[in-house]
Every structure is written in structure tokens, then in C-alpha cells.
């Protein structure tokens, strides 16, 4: 069977993905060829597909930013990897492929006991959760954090990880099923944003004080409630916009409570190969210790990626989805 990619001829809808046959890539100097077992699905892929994040190419963009598989060949100068090694990665674009090339220093080793599917779902979401609670706003015992979309891919990791650090995690979710899931993950409180006022409930839970930090990957639909939920000198971390872009925030909105606002992204936190290896090691250690879980909720053939995008955008998924070449 020939290799292939799922590409977009131009920015557009999920129905416009095209399967394109390719010759099996040959690794050049410093490169590794991976035969992919599983590819993670993320809202970042949607942003690339529809050009929320502008395209750097004229056509035939291949989305996808995380995956896992087996090394099939290495190029000149590569000494850290050999054929048969199980590896995973996260980097922008080109993951929607049955086989792909990647720079050797962007790979991490998949530990024994961790499946390719687990690794593929964790590389972007897991290391996002890692930098959010260790670097962007470091969680300490006794703190209170609000996580928007607690039943989503990153939210399912943030809640139990925050709780394991001795802090209180408050989550939001839409509907009884997702609320129950978030509670089972270790959130101390879960607010149903379909039927409750998030900021008002946060005020009740915290005795009017508000939370130290909000981790908000939803964006347009939630930013107002996120700001209103913060305590004095709290920080709003806007790390995504699955509901749309956050409108401009007047500085006076922050001055009322001396708030902090930041918009970090993962790839500035793993650009250094040593930092990539450090974060991946701590993330996999948390998985093996049972602090976080990597459960795949949906498996979709890569050739049907359009269907997976539609389900993700319509909020019909819970937790992680993997694409299988």
C-alpha cells in the first residue's frame, strides 16, 4: 500500500480534505523517517485548516501536530535513533501522513508500557498541561484554579495534575455527561456552563475570593466569565480559542483587580531540545505514576479525518481522538 497524506488545497471546511498519494520519504542529514501508528487530533489542526493561523504555503497544507510510531530509517549523521525505535513528537503541521520525516532532535522515546496511541494523544496536550501548571502559572499547594472545558483533551489532564499538587481544581463542562466525567477525573467542583453562571458559582465556591488562575482554552465564549472569576492579582491564561478569537481586552478590565493576562503557546516552551526532553520525561512519569491518564475516546481512520474535524468542532467528542493511518 502506498503512502499518503491528507491535505487541504486551500483554507476551508472539513469536507475539503483530499487524500494525496506520496512516495515514501527518504531521510536527509539529521532526519528520521517514521512509520506512523497514531496521530493526535487537536483544535490546533482546525485553526491550521481554516487559516485562523495563516498559511505559510499557497496550497496543499498538511495539518496535524503530534504523532507516534516506529523509526523506519535514519539519515546521515543521526546516531540517537535506529530502525525499530518507538518514538513520538509534537511540532506544527505535516502529521496527517502514513509516514513522515522529522528532525532527529524533535523526537522523544516512547517509554515501555506506553502505547503509540497514548503517546500520540499526550505529546501536544500533555506537554501543554505541563508547561501551563509548571511554567506559565506554577501551581502550589492551597491554590485554587479554574479550568474551562474540563472534559476536553487538555482539561482531562489539568484537573488531576492540579489536584495532585495539593491545589483545588474547579472545572467547567457542558451537560450532565461531561460534568460527571470531570468529577470522576478529580475536579473538586464542576460547573455546568449550559445551566449555571460560571463566575457566580466560582464566587460561591470560593467565598467571594475568586481563583488564583484560570486556564482557558475555549476563548470567545468563556473569556468574560474567566476574567470575572479571578481573585485580586489573579492570572488569566488564554491558551486556545476553540469557540473563536478572544476580542480585544481593555487594560482597564485588568486594572480593576490588578489582573495578569497571558497568551502562551507550547512550541515556545519546547523549542530547546533539552527542554523538550525534560517536559516529555516529566509528562510520561506523571502518566506512569497514575497522576494523569491517556485514554483514547475516539479512533478514526486518517482517510476520514474530515469526519473527525466535524465532530471536534461540533463538540461531539470527549477527551482524546486519534487518527489511524
UniProtKB/TrEMBL annotation:
<dbReference type="GO" id="GO:0003960">
    <property type="term" value="F:quinone reductase (NADPH) activity"/>
</dbReference>
<dbReference type="InterPro" id="IPR047618">
    <property type="entry name" value="QOR-like"/>
</dbReference>
<dbReference type="GO" id="GO:0070402">
    <property type="term" value="F:NADPH binding"/>
</dbReference>
<keyword id="KW-0560">Oxidoreductase</keyword>
<dbReference type="InterPro" id="IPR020843">
    <property type="entry name" value="ER"/>
</dbReference>
<protein>
    <submittedName>
        <fullName>Quinone oxidoreductase</fullName>
    </submittedName>
</protein>
<dbReference type="InterPro" id="IPR036291">
    <property type="entry name" value="NAD(P)-bd_dom_sf"/>
</dbReference>
<feature type="domain" description="Enoyl reductase (ER)">
    <location>
        <begin position="12"/>
        <end position="323"/>
    </location>
</feature>
<dbReference type="InterPro" id="IPR011032">
    <property type="entry name" value="GroES-like_sf"/>
</dbReference>
<dbReference type="GO" id="GO:0005829">
    <property type="term" value="C:cytosol"/>
</dbReference>
<dbReference type="Pfam" id="PF08240">
    <property type="entry name" value="ADH_N"/>
</dbReference>
<dbReference type="GO" id="GO:0035925">
    <property type="term" value="F:mRNA 3'-UTR AU-rich region binding"/>
</dbReference>
<dbReference type="InterPro" id="IPR013154">
    <property type="entry name" value="ADH-like_N"/>
</dbReference>
<dbReference type="InterPro" id="IPR013149">
    <property type="entry name" value="ADH-like_C"/>
</dbReference>
<keyword id="KW-0521">NADP</keyword>
<dbReference type="Pfam" id="PF00107">
    <property type="entry name" value="ADH_zinc_N"/>
</dbReference>
Amino acid at each position: 500500500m502506498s503512502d499518503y497524506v491528507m491535505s487541504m488545497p486551500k483554507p476551508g471546511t472539513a469536507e475539503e480534505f483530499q487524500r494525496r498519494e506520496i512516495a515514501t520519504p527518504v531521510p536527509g542529514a539529521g532526519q528520521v523517517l517514521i512509520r506512523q501508528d497514531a496521530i493526535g487530533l487537536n483544535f490546533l489542526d482546525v485553526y491550521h485548516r481554516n487559516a485562523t493561523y495563516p498559511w505559510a504555503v499557497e496550497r496543499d497544507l498538511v495539518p496535524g501536530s503530534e504523532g507516534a510510531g516506529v523509526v523506519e530509517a535514519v539519515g546521515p549523521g543521526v546516531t540517537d535513533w535506529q530502525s525499530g525505535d518507538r518514538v513520538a513528537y509534537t511540532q506544527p503541521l505535516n502529521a496527517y501522513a502514513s509516514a513522515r520525516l522529522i528532525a532527529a532532535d524533535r523526537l522523544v522515546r516512547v517509554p515501555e508500557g506506553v502505547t503509540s496511541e497514548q503517546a500520540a494523544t499526550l505529546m501536544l496536550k500533555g506537554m501543554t498541561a505541563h508547561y501551563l501548571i509548571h511554567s506559565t502559572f506554577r501551581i502550589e499547594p492551597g491554590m485554587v484554579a479554574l479550568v474551562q472545558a474540563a472534559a476536553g483533551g487538555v482539561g482531562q489532564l489539568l484537573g488531576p495534575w492540579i489536584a495532585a499538587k495539593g491545589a483545588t481544581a474547579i472545572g467547567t463542562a457542558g451537560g450532565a455527561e461531561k460534568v460527571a466525567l470531570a468529577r470522576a477525573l478529580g475536579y473538586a467542583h464542576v460547573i455546568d456552563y449550559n445551566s449555571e453562571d460560571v463566575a457566580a458559582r466560582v464566587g460561591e465556591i470560593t467565598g467571594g475570593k475568586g481563583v488564583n488562575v484560570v486556564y482557558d482554552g475555549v476563548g470567545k465564549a468563556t473569556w468574560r466569565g474567566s476574567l470575572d472569576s479571578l481573585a485580586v492579582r489573579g492570572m488569566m491564561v488564554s491558551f486556545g480559542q476553540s469557540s473563536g478569537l478572544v476580542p480585544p481586552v481593555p487594560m482597564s478590565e485588568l486594572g480593576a483587580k490588578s489582573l495578569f493576562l497571558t497568551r502562551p503557546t507550547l512550541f515556545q516552551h519546547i523549542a530547546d531540545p533539552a527542554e523538550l526532553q525534560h517536559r516529555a520525561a516529566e509528562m510520561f512519569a506523571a502518566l506512569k505514576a497514575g497522576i494523569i491518564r491517556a485514554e483514547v475516546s475516539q479512533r478514526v481512520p486518517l482517510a476520514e479525518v474530515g469526519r473527525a474535524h466535524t465532530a471536534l468542532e461540533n463538540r461531539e467528542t470527549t477527551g482524546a481522538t486519534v487518527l489511524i493511518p
